[in-house]
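pinging the channel bc i need a second pair of eyes. not urgent but kinda urgent?? the chain im working w is below, pasted from the shared doc
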Amino acid sequence: MEYNVSGDNLQLVTLQIQPGEKVFAEAGSMVYMSGNVNMEAKMRGGLLKGIGRKFMGETIFLTEFTSAGGQGMVSFGGTAPGTIKDLDIKSGNHWMVQKDAFLVAEDEVEMSVGFQKKLGSIFFGGEGFILQKLAGEGKVFIHACGDFVEFTLEPDQVLKVDTGSVVGWEDTVQFDIERVKGIKTMFFGGEGIFLTTLKGPGKVIIQSMNLSNLASALAPFMPRQNTSGSSGGLVGTLIRS
């Protein structure tokens, strides 16, 4: 399967699929496709996996794409400004990624629910309790907010990251959290009370900005609707004057 990732901050991945090839994607992620591509909603993996996807905040159904009568073209995009990255999933290992990261994958890839194993990571790690587990074998594309920075950690090498900024990691990487040292640093350092720690060996992907931070930065500039009571009071004041 050939593919091309285009764009800068609003990227698309365009796949060239041959007859007999199949890819599946998150519902609603398709942007455009050629006329000979067929798509069909499927509950991949049965009802239990469908329910699991619902817990991840995704749809129960995924959309499958196939080509008829020659090579087909289909393009996919994320729901926020960010980056698309391809992962090569090999048999015997898997990746854990943010619950909204999955975009599209080859048919042999298995997407299922993953869980944080340590209690502290669940409440303070920033990635949440429920994750996406990518296993099987094949190419998968993930998407997240911001730009990506990739690291290959050596055995016992530790990387400390702002909570919520980890996009994904190989299953060989140990994920944990630790408290920031020093009272002044915790409350006035601006980085929060906890940091995520990633211990090698294995690959990890970090994002330059997560969606939560982006929403917080935009919040002061969003329009706010006045309540009916306030509007009524203003109108009444104008009439009396």
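so The longest helix spans residues 228-240. and Residues 2-210 form a domain with the Double-stranded beta-helix fold (CATH 3.60.160.10). — does that match what u expected or am i reading it wrong
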